[in-house]
Amino acid sequence: MNEKINIKNTEKEERSPIRKREIIKTLLIIFLAGMLILTFFSNTIMNRHLPEISTEAVNSGKLTERVRGSGIVESNQTYEVKAEKAMTIVSINIKKGQEIKKDDVLFTLTAESDATLKEAEKALQETELEYEKALLDTPNSFKEEKKAVKDARAALDAAIKKRDKAYSMQSDAAQEKEQYSSDKSEERRLQGIKEKLSATISALDTDDLSTAAPEYTNSVASAYNRYMKAADDYSNAYANYTQAVANGAGADIVNSAYNDAEKKRAARDKESEHYNSIKEALRNNLTDQLMGIEEELEPVSDRVAAYESNMSSEAESYESYVDDVNEKQAALDDAVAALADAQAEDAVTGKKNALDMEAKKKSIEAQKAEIKNLKKNTGKVELKAKYDGIVREIIAQPDADVTEGEILAMVDLADEGYTLKVNGVDPEKARKIKVGVKAEVLNNWSGTTEATLKEIKADTTSGSKNKMLVFDVTGEVEVGSQLEVSIPCGSGTYDAIVPKSAVRKGDDGDFVLTLKSKNSPLGNRYFAEKVKVDVLAADEVSKAVQGNISQGTYVITESSRSISPGDQVRMKDK
């Protein structure tokens, strides 16, 4: 039994490696088959994600440049049909676009007697009321101007009294002013000493002698300098000692450096004690001086402040009173002059008022005559054409009330002809066109319309550098209609002509995208390549270009999405 078991285990162990090799072989075959399938279909998969393009070959031959544009037909001359007076429109006897002859009846009107008469009578009543009010105007009493003169004279008298009183007190004021000048000078002197003492005490407290008064700190300054030098010497000696210890120097060197540092520390402490002693003594001395200066300064400052307060509030100088008298005298002179001017102006105004009264009286008489005439005028009026022409626009409405001079219609004078203006023409192309050339009218539905170039001038659009073409138009046209024209501006033979859609704009100028192919194990691949070109001429569908391009080269005209130079593309299926 044991022998059977051993035989089975041995067979199982022999079959196990064979089984593993078969599994690995199967997986390898599947992997290679998958790679083969992906390789054959990768080109198709990739092509589905590439932009689809259309191309055309570059041709050579003849190209005729043309300028194409449009404009609105205008009449060379228009006149306005106006109402001769305020009336009501009874009927409109014309239509827009109608051809009319001289003396044709355009409008039938009737005088609006009731409304016009009422308006005229109302205006007469208002004029008569203004006339009667003007008769009631009272003469000017110049009350305000006279009061201003009276007040100015009283102010001058008061100023003279103050000036005279100040003159009598001038000697006392001069003595007080002299004492004030002396006190002011003494105050400045004491204040300067106080500031120096305060600054020096503060400098001693902070050991910053740069802000101290030198006359107080000569001795302490030299002591401070010796102290600072001794402190620097100790700092350097101690640094040498710590460096020797850090460097692991011998005991003799370390001990020598330590002893030197201790010696200089003792010297520093001695100088510090000496400096602090001198500084403290000086500070006490300066503090005593400061207290004495403050006691001396206080009464002087009180006298100065009292004088300045009294001078500003009460004791103004004699000169200021003299100036005040001069100002008050000038104010009185101005008030007297203003009264005189007002009286003179009133005299002129009175004469003007008299003239206005006379004018109002004449206006009343004229309005009464107009009302009398309106009451007689109730008949109908026919408004006739003054010239032959075509009705461009009818502005008035039936049964509408119109005022004198109101525009009722616009009439184009047919005998004067028509004009067409085309804006936005490229200056380079405009230079190739000659005045007198006939343009092709593209929407010439009647077959009789002709357009002849009569002028080339600057475009009227603000900031534009383009040109405007002005044409004489004849034939059956309507004012306000739009005409499209095409004008040849020269022909030429060119080596490279491409579709208009193939030329693109870039930051560095015009360019085309040409089609370049590259061979690969899976077939040809196509790429877009940028070629800079200069546009020499253009017509409606093509452009003649110059650059690194020749007949037979394929250029890209359309793409399913935006492409850039170097992008891989695919040809559109045909």
Please tell me about this protein's structure.
With 574 residues, this protein is α+β, with helices and mostly antiparallel strands. The protein folds into 4 domains: 1-49; 52-72 and 417-571, Efflux pump adaptor protein, beta barrel domain (Elongation Factor Tu (Ef-tu), domain 3), CATH 2.40.30.170; 77-104 and 385-414, Beta Barrel (OB fold (Dihydrolipoamide Acetyltransferase, E2P)); 177-314. Helices cover 51% and strands 27% of the residues. The protein has 8 helices and 21 strands. The protein has helices spanning 2-49, 113-135, 143-168, 170-206, 214-247, 251-313, 318-376, 427-430; strands spanning 52-57, 59-75, 78-82, 87-92, 99-100, 105-111, 380-384, 389-394, 401-402, 407-412, 418-425, 438-441, 450-458, 467-474, 482-499, 504-506, 509-520, 523-538, 542-547, 554-559, 568-571. The strands form 3 sheets. The protein has a 6-stranded antiparallel beta barrel with strand order 2-11-14-13-12-15. Strands 3-10-8-5 form a 4-stranded antiparallel sheet, with no helix packed on it. Strand 13 and strand 14 form a beta hairpin. Helix 2 (113-135) runs antiparallel to helix 7 (318-376) and helix 4 (170-206) runs antiparallel to helix 6 (251-313). The longest helix is centred in the middle third of the chain and has 63 residues, at 251-313. The radius of gyration is 57 Å and the shape is flat.
* Count of runs of 4 or more consecutive helical residues: 8
Number of domains: 4
What's the architecture of the largest domain, going by CATH? Beta Barrel
List how many beta strands DSSP finds.
21
How much helix, percentage-wise, in residues? Answer: 40-55%
CATH topology of the largest domain: Elongation Factor Tu (Ef-tu), domain 3
Q: Give the biggest beta sheet.
A: 6 strands, antiparallel, barrel
CATH superfamily of the largest domain: Efflux pump adaptor protein, beta barrel domain
Question: Overall mean pLDDT score?
Answer: 80
Give the termini distance in whole angstroms. Answer: 81 Å
Pattern of helices and strands: HEEEEEEHHHHHHEEEEEHEEEEEEEEEE
